[in-house]
Amino acid sequence: MTLFKNAYGGLSPKIWLLALVMLINRAGTMVVAFMSVYTTQKLNYSIEEAGYVMMMFGAGAVVGSWLGGKLTDILGHYLVQLLSLSIGGLLFFVVVKIETFEYLCAGVFILAVFGEAYRPANTVSISHFCKPENFTRSVSLVRLAINLGWAIGPVLGGYFASRNYDYLFWADGVTNILAAALVWRFLRTKVVRTAKVSKEQKALNKKDSPWRDGYFMIFVGLATLYVMSFSPLFTVLPVFYKEACGIDEQQIGLLMGLNGLLVASVEMILIYKLEHRYSKMQFIFFGCVLLVINYLMYYYLRSFAWLIVGITFGTFSEIFALPFMNTFSIERAKGHNLGQYSAAYSMSWPIAQIISPLLGTQVIALLGYDALIVSLGGLAFMATVGFYLMAKK
After folding, report:
1. What pLDDT score was predicted for residue 198?
2. Whose CA is closest to 116, among 315, 348, 321?
3. Contact in structure between 264 and 151 (CB atoms under 8 Å)
4. CA distances (Å), 150 to each of 32, 157, 270, 299, in order?
5. Residue from 118, 18, 86 nearest 339 by CA
6. Do the Cβ atoms of 88 and 118 come closer than 8 Å?
7. pLDDT at position 385, please?
8. CB within 8 Å of 365: residues ≥ 6 apart
9. CA-closest candidate to residue 251, choices 358, 159, 389
10. Number of H helices, E strands in the chain
11. Read out DSSP for 30-83?
């Protein structure tokens, strides 16, 4: 009990409210998890067309992350979060009505722009509401809420998908709007106009851009490789689970829900106990090693029981890698460009979401599922080597 109290104690009430918002929002995260299954099973798209739909989601997410970071530095984290959640929620009700391939690609792109603008704003809001020494634990608490919601969402999503795929979109829309209402009611802050900056200060700020920070850009590149190998566990691989492993939608939902449940159960405790024992890069490197093990297991062992063991390694990979990636990106920034650094790191996710679905679905179509697992494991191995070198330096 003392361990739990110490792990969760000392965090700002606003951080707990942010976590509650994320819990509600992510409990409705069903559409992205089942998009590849939805497009192939209900809309009867080919696996290549499903990949293009997911690629458009990733392209919209790149634009949304960049735009969200820029707007966060101008308008503040509160307003960006409110607009992202509310407009994004309404768009789910529109996209569910689209069946034509070209229009669906466009709808998914716009949906992702608004949805992903939330990510950098949320990270900056965490840094705004917490003490610097508690930032990693604060990130982990919000991630705990995300993953607890992720434990609920795919399970419900599997239930809904087995009955009517439209329910996935309605659930996502409602939970986004509810999360926006909580942000408006409890996390409202004044919208402060940005003070005028002199030409000399603008020049100095430009030199502080994350895009000129070589070490940080190497980090972003490696983070992108990691996400390219990690995110398919919940985007491309549901098709692998169904067709290559022979499990149904409800089992797919349970498999992905286990990921969220494990993160919610152990991440805060592990962060509290281990945070100051090793460097951030060492934790990230170890997380990459666990992801390689995950794919080794997926290549050889494909029963539902072994898939559970495999996803457990993937989950602990996430626990060790992602909180410290967030912390590194914020600590690398300065006060005036928190949003830009957060956006630069956040873009590793949508860039990966452009490449991974397209690459994954093309590999499946041309070479099969064995080649897919080898490709994803290879990307994880490349990230492992890169972060090992960064940790060593």
Report:
1. 47
2. 348
3. yes
4. 11, 10, 19, 25
5. 118
6. yes
7. 96
8. 46, 47, 48
9. 159
10. 18, 0
11. -HHHHHHHHHHHTS---HHHHHHHHHHHHHHHHHHHHHHHHHHHHH-HHHHHHH
Q: Which two tokens stand for residue 302?
A: 């494909």
Question: pLDDT digit string (tens) for 35-63?
Answer: 877 888 888 888 788 878 877 887 888 88
One-letter identity of residue 273: K
- pLDDT at residue number 201: 47
Backbone φ/ψ region at 303: left (φ over 0), alpha (ψ -120 to 50), beta: beta
Measured distance between the N- and C-terminal CA atoms of the chain, rounded to whole angstroms: 38
Q: What is the number of alpha carbons within 13 Å of residue 50 lying toward its C-beta?
A: 27
Percent of the chain with pLDDT over 70: 92
Task: Report the pLDDT averaged over residues 98-112.
Answer: 91
Instruction: Give CA torsion, residues 87, 92, 93, 96, to 10 deg.
Output: 160
Q: Which amino acid is at 72?
A: T
Widest distance between CA atoms in the chain: 63
For residues 253 and 159, is the Cβ–Cβ distance under 8 A? yes
Q: Can you read off the two tokens belonging to residue 30? A: 């069903």
- Per the prediction, the chain carries an average pLDDT of 82
Tokens of 272: 């509290």
CA distance 238 to 355: 17
CA distance 38 to 42: 5
How many CB atoms sit inside 10 A of residue 9's CB? Answer: 11
Specify the amino acid at residue 221: G
Q: What is the 3-state secondary structure (H, E, C) of 136-194?
A: HHHHHHHHHHHHHHHHHHHHHHHHHHCCCCHHHHHHHHHHHHHHHHHHHHHCCCCCCCC
106 has pLDDT over 80 = yes
- Single-letter amino acid code for the residue at 372: L
| Distance (Å, whole) CA 122 – CA 85 | 11
Q: For residue 277, how far is the Cα from the chain centroid?
A: 26
The CA-CA-CA angle for residues 28, 164, 168, to 5°, reads 15
Q: Which residues contact 298 (CB under 8 A, 6 or more apart)?
A: 307, 310, 373
Q: Quick one: pLDDT at residue 28?
A: 58
